[in-house]
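Write out this protein's structure.
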Amino acid sequence: MLLTVSTTHRPATDLGHLLHKHPDRSQRFEVTGGVAHVMYPEASEERCTAALLLDVDPVELARGRRGQGPEGFVLGQYVNDLPYAASSLLAVALGKVFGSALRGRCGARPELVETPIPLEIHIPALPCRGGPELVRNLFLPLGWSVWAISVPLDPAFPDWGDSRYLDVRLTGSARLADALSQLYVLLPVLDDAKHYWVSEDEVAKLVRAGGRWLNTHPERELITSRYLAHQRRFASAALARLAELDGRPAEEVVEDVVEDATEVAADSAPVGHDAADQRVPSLAEQRCAAILSELRSAGAARVVDMGCGEGRLLRELLAERSFTEIVGVDVAPRALRTAAARLRLDQMAERQRERIRLLHGSLTYADSRLAGFDALVLAEVIEHVDPPRLPALAQAVFGAARPTTVVVTTPNVEYNVRWPSLPAGDTRHPDHRFEWSRTEFADWAETVSAEYGYTARILPVGPVDAELGAPTQLAVFTRKGANPA
């Protein structure tokens, strides 16, 4: 694993003072699973580069984990990418080797600690579940210019396509301590594979490392969930702590992560690299994919996302050119502001910006702005509506807006017993007014279809339990007499 940090600050060799590592000699440090080396490939008044090289020994790492993984993963413990790719182990080494710099301590040049300096960070082999777009989504809001390209599986065989590894360069002006803290947090987030035990201590580490920037980051929920290995109780605690730093009510920050975190909640077992390689998409990702599939099948081009929240589905819709007009509607102005920031509407090219609008509106009131669209999506929305208001929602959607296709997803309450971290009788989200069984959802869909002239198909989303069904149920309503593509 290799990471380099360069500066053209004058004198550039001040980088050695900030890192507490002298440019004239290389140093060696014992770290988890291997040895870290610090060296300076270049060190002049004009430019200085510090390199952190982590030499991981997979055999030694596997010996330390004996008995913790199933037998099927034994070979993967020894034959893997750990010696070469910038995984969470590099973040651990960075925290140990550059701990003083990360905490912003420099006795020799104390004034430099608070001084933004020009920096270039290069990570030639970065595993990333999310590709170059995720790297941009994470680092651009922090002020970095981002260059990220996928590394081909084999340059000699271009038809094989790209690997999951990226060659990444970040350039910008920042406090070195901030740059290191961002790398410390985001390296494991990008890899999405913690290589060590994730416990409550990790919450404090995350808040300490990200306290200066994470609470205002538009992707803070994703960052927090991935950093804490998708464990609901830890992610909720971290977001609440960050909310305190931000001065906002904790429930506003926590509410968006709780539901998704519940769906991918893991027990407290160690999270290893091999398990991450086998990881299936989260339920939220599967739900989004199922919605997009139905919209494509319906030939929808003009789509409304009712209760769009902070824009997760909107981002996927924008990525496909077949969706020519996209409208996000939400009752919460804060959610719309966050969606605009996440989607970077202010930076979007004009032709792209013309495809999307964000509207403040209610689910239960007829809105003439929404009439005549091809499709309308209610993704995990109806369960947030008080049951007496459901007829008003049906009238607003199926009666007034009356799109050709309506896609509705909602939790299957029968499946809740399969979530180990969900207390018996609790709903998946504290704001859920109800959660339906499969029969109750089917009855509602049949009633709405009969009243407003639609037909309905109900599909499972997520792993299907023979007894309890799937965790999410999806209904596709098609208006009778319509001619979808």
